[in-house]
Amino acid sequence: MSLQVHLRFPTDFRSVLQALVLLSASTAIVLLYQWQSHVHRKKSNAETVVAVDPVELNSIPGPLEFRESHVFKKGPTTEHWNLLALHRQYGPVVRIGPTHVSVADFDSVNAIYRQATTFLKTDWYDLFTEKGKGVIFNIRNKELHAKRRRIVSHGFSLSSTRVMLPFIRTKALHMVAQLAESSEAQDAVDDENREDDPSELLSRIIIAKDPATGHAMDFQTLCMEARGFILAASDTTANTLTMAVNHISRSQSVWTQLHRELKEAIPSMEALQDSLQDASSYYTQLPFLVACIKETYRLSPAIAKLLPRQVPNRGCSLAGHHVPAGTIVGTSIFVQHRWDEDLWGPSDYADEFHPERWLESSQSSEAEVAKLKKMNSFLTPFSQGTRACLGRHIADMELHVVLATLFRFYQPVHVVTPVEEMKEQGFFISGPRGGKCLIQFKSVELQ
Ligand code: HEM
Predict the structure, then answer these.
(1) Membrane-spanning residues where (predicted)?
(2) Residue 389 alpha carbon to ligand 1 centre in Å
């Protein structure tokens, strides 16, 4: 049987927010949105912009041509690959434009994005404003952003999103049933469908109030935020899922190890309903699945573009270089997850899918345990600090549930799509270059 994974947009608004268990990618909607927003771009979202003297950046390593032009102009959809090559050549800090600097080392990345950061988002984010109005994703003013985020954050908390587990499981079962031809599998899905929908994310956002003022969002703001969530949620999750399925399916030994673990947790199709009922069991009972997902986050983060931030008034020091106020700095998560050889190994090992790097063995030395701890804290596919992804718990749970369900009952026999077409690419949200991943699976239910 040949499965071509594809994107389906649910029809009603509530399920759009909820149904994110879809494979493959389409960037057309996002691009259209970006174009429309650009037409209505307004300056009101802007912070004070400090003029930078480019000469002050001359001591920062990088190709001379980028003192005058800009690395981004060399292919906006593959910028992260260019940045990776530059960091491998020049080190942790690279000048990538007249007033632009890219970083890739642990301390610099943390200094820019950590919790109490004063490095604000730059006017690049105004590309995404609609009629001059921002949403949580692109509001640059620190106080406005904190206020808006505070209103909805409860609905996205770990405990709130875990309530969505039954809904996500139902969607995962639908997917497996679509692959299966047996009526038995279809019955299992129909049984699950009798459950009430417990996810209610949209309802929670509608009634959410600012704890400080007691006010809810007005209707227009609510609609804009909801649309923002759809854009932020769909292709990111879909592409990550596609990449995970692709990475796992390309290695027979990875699938075998994963399947062994899943078979123990879910002994049969009949046992599926009663297995892994609690969200935390996916994390505690399935360490190899967790490692496969971490390795996908590392290699193929859905947002690979450098996330630009403006250096605050006092300037800063990054990897021993003084960087003046107003300079645009940032990291590409994609580069951050591959560059440092001490953490990720030499480039050929860093660029390959090796889930076992995330598993601590009983023989691990103290140094190895410390390294693993650092790797975990540097693995930030959802970014970090006050601008970290709001939907990370939802996305993470979806990945665990869908991959566990798929690979428990299906074995990949052939990945049709060439490796080259699966290379990460995208203007803002990154996904497979070819836009899809074609894989042949066979059912393993009876084994
Ligand atoms: C695997 C899936 C996902 C990945 C890899 C991802 C990644 C990210 C990253 C890296 C950022 C920071 C962007 C920046 O600084 O410019 C971000 C922000 C955001 N994401 Fe996600 N995301 C995912 C899924 C979701 C989902 C499911 C939702 C909502 C249901 C969501 C909502 C948001 C929002 C609202 C922001 C803006 C947060 C803020 O600025 O305060 N994301 N995401």
Answers:
(1) 16-35
(2) 3
Tokens of residue 13, six digits: 């608004």
- Cβ of residue 382 lying under 6 Å from some atom of ligand 1: yes
Residue ranges and CATH numbers for the domains of the chain are: 2-443 (1.10.630.10)
302 Cβ below 6 A of ligand 1: yes
Q: Quote the ligand 1 centre to 308 CA distance (angstroms).
A: 15
Low-confidence stretches of the chain (pLDDT beneath 50): 1-46, 182-196, 198
Alpha helix stretches (DSSP H) within 5-55: 13-18, 28-39
CA 78 – ligand 1 centroid, Å:
20
pLDDT tens-digit series, residues 421-431: 999 999 999 99
Confidence (pTM)? 0.87
Distance of CA 217 to the CA centre of its chain: 27
Query: Does 237 sit in the ligand 1 pocket, CB within 6 Å?
Result: yes
Q: Which strands, in side-by-side order, build the sheet including 2-4? A: 2-4, 438-443, 410-415
